[in-house]
Amino acid sequence: MVKILVTGTPGSGKSTVLEGVKVIKIIGFADEMLKLSSTNGVTDRDRLRYMTYEEIASIRKSVIENTINKMDEDLLIDTHLTVKKKTRYVPGFSRSDLDMMKDLKGIIYIDAHANDIMFRRLTDKTRSREDEPEEEIHEQRRINISIASYYAAHLNLPLYIVKNRQNQVETAIKDLEDAIKEIIGKSV
User: Fold this and answer.
1) How many CB atoms are located within 10 Å of the residue 188 CB?
2) CA–CA separation, 127 vs 121, rounded Å?
3) Which residues does residue 89 pair with via DSSP β-bridges, in sequence order?
4) Beta bridge partners of 143
5) Three-state DSSP class for 90?
């Protein structure tokens, strides 16, 4: 059984790329958090970032212990490395969260050029995202890649960066599947 974190800066096209992967179960970490946070009145995943750090940490720990660690199958965990609200970045996972996650074997970061991210955010009417200039998107990408590198080093796991270039989603899907195959060690 293998678990892989798949992440990317919001607007990188991570969800679109993941839609192309049909051969391994995918679980949305934020979706699982939303199920637990709905008891606190949060019913929109884009509102999760407005919860307190303590609330986020508690729900995150519960999802790891009671959902992720109890799944006995190969799994992609669709998640974020950071949650941003104005100038605050909250890490997606703490060191203790990472240490408690069982069977984690790799991290895949879906990346895109800042211009592409900005365009995708502006045209995605299904999400409620803040309008941010290209400079801030560059900052988010740098912070997220730094955190992915830290997670990989801390856990001694491989880190893959899959480029999702504009109008080349099929290439990104193939690159993602190749990374999954290498991590799992079998054909997907």
Assistant:
1) 16
2) 8
3) 84
4) none
5) strand
- Map out the domains of the chain with their CATH numbers: 3-181 (3.40.50.300)
pTM of the predicted protein model: 0.90
Cβ partners under 8 Å of residue 34, min gap 6: 42, 43, 44, 45, 48
Residue 76 pairs with which residues in a beta bridge?
4, 26
**Rounded Cα gap, residues 183 and 2, in angstroms:** 8
CA distances to 108, 117, 137 from 8, rounded to whole Å, are 8, 10, 12
Report which of 15, 95, 103 is spatially closest to residue 60, judged by C-alpha positions: 95
Instruction: Among 27-31, 106-110, 124-128, name the one with the lowest average pLDDT.
Output: 124-128
- Amino acid letter, residue 108: I
53-66 and 29-37 are packed helices; what angle lies between their axes, rounded to 10 degrees? Answer: 110
Residue 112 binned pLDDT confidence (cut-offs 50, 70, 90): very high
Q: SS3 of 11, please?
A: coil
* 82-85 and 88-91 strand pairing: antiparallel
Beta strand residue intervals within 41-184, DSSP E = 75-78, 82-85, 88-91, 104-111, 159-163
48: left (phi over 0), alpha (psi -120 to 50) or beta: alpha
Integer Cα distance of 83 and 42 in angstroms: 16
| Residue found under tokens 């690159």 | 175
Of 55, 53, 45, which is closest to residue 129 (Cα–Cα)? Answer: 45
